[in-house]
Design a protein that fits this description.
Layout (H helix, E strand, L loop, with lengths): L3 E5 L1 E4 L4 E7 L8 E7 L6 E7 L5 E3 L7 E6 L4 E6 L8 E8 L8 E2 L3 E6 L1
Parallel strand pairs: 2-11
Antiparallel strand pairs: 1-3, 3-8, 4-5, 4-9, 5-6, 7-8, 9-10, 9-11
Length: 119
């Protein structure tokens, strides 16, 4: 069973920066795209950013455009999320995810890592 293992996160002041990393627990073939989602208390999980290994295309939620940057290494199935100019509303549990087929939803998830932005 392939696991996605996240690292990073923690407590940061508003306006600050923090980075998240996610790696597959072992060499995995066939991953098409990796991404990040987040879930704040009392809210549904929402999309944050994604990167496709097919051409390196990236996609961002409007709420994070210009502040967050997703990057990755397709050979290692590793993805990073650099978060700058953080706001208290960015506080959430951040989840790494992966999928093997662009036609279907994400089917592999990490355990989540907490990011807390203090005002």
């Amino acid at each position: 069973q392939v696991r996605l293992v996240e690292s990073g996160g923690g407590l940061v002041q508003a306006g600050g920066s923090i980075g998240l990393s996610c790696a597959a627990s072992r060499r995995t073939f066939g991953i098409y795209e990796m991404g990040w989602f987040r879930q704040a208390p009392g809210k549904e999980r929402e999309f944050v950013a994604a990167i496709s290994w097919n051409g390196g295309r990236t996609n961002y939620a409007d709420s994070v455009k210009g502040r967050f940057t997703i990057s990755g290494d397709s050979a290692k199935n590793t993805v990073f999320l650099q978060m700058n100019s953080l706001k208290p509303e960015d506080t959430a549990v951040y989840y790494c995810a992966a999928k093997s087929d662009p036609r279907y939803p994400y089917d592999r998830w990490g355990q989540g890592t907490q990011v807390t932005v203090s005002s």
